[in-house]
Amino acid sequence: MAQKRQREEDKTAEASGGSKQPASGSNATLGQQTSHIKNKLVRAELYAKLKHKQKKQKKVERKRRDAEAARAEELGLEPPPKKQQKTLENTREKDVTMVEEGDEEVALDEADDEFAAHFAREREPKVLVTTCYKPSKTMFTFLAEMLEVLPRVEYYKRQGFPLKQVVGFAAGRDYSDLLVFNEDRKEVNGLLHVHLPDGPTAHYRLSSLVLGQDIRGHGRPSSHRPELVLNNFGTRLGRRVGRMLGSLFHQEPQFRGRRVATFHNQRDFIFFR
Questions:
Q1: What's the pTM?
Q2: Which runs of E-coded beta strand occur in the chain?
Q3: Tell me: the pLDDT tens digits for 134-154?
Q4: What is the pLDDT of residues 95-105, one digit of tens each?
Q5: What are the C-alpha distances in Å from 115 to residues 43, 129, 252?
Q6: Pairing between β-strand 177-183 and β-strand 188-195 as defined by DSSP bridges
Q7: Nearest to 189 by CA among 148, 234, 142
Q8: Rounded to 5, what percent of the chain is helix, strand, coil?
Q9: CB-based contact 201:194 (threshold 8 Å)
């Protein structure tokens, strides 16, 4: 057995070529521990052995924790704390641009930005919606629901006009925002949002679109102004995007209608419902 183990070690050393040392330490992953091996078969064999060893260690640790919890329960003591599961959210490094509560600099910037008049209730939202050239039936079905979601919105057919001319048309008629929806192969896949008259402009990629008619047991919305909910827009860029989306809705919702429009930001994806 000793000779066989020695041959495997020699084979691994020859496959690595000595050009790169394996990563060491408790934080090194299995891939980092085997990445120095050039031979694919030897690397896969070593990876499988390390993976099997890791599973055995986890099983022993899990049995030990279960035994300690059962013993503490028998003695009437508080069980040991459970190990926190690692997720993308709790392992993500803190963003240095995260805005703290009561930041005076951000408050002064937002008091004089492009959306200040809207949030001061001096300018009501007035949204113009249009589409790409030659929209399909799918696009019109989607627009029918968007016209029910936004409280004060009008639809105009594109009719081959260039985007620059559409922006000038909307700005000259006191529209606050312009929404241009795009589709590819009869699937709505993009949104261009222009805040008028001086910007800013944002482009969003739309995915995983589910219409209300596809939801089982869906109801028909009323004409009340919806309540707006913005979640996880905590960075400087996030607050600006959140204010831009919030400018599409009134700041005085009608709670009697029990309508809610939610924008939830998670992992740089904005979920809307």
A1: 0.67
A2: 127-131, 153-155, 177-183, 188-195, 201-205, 227-231, 260-266, 269-272
A3: 888 988 888 888 888 888 889
A4: 777 887 878 88
A5: 57, 19, 16
A6: antiparallel
A7: 142
A8: 40, 15, 45
A9: yes
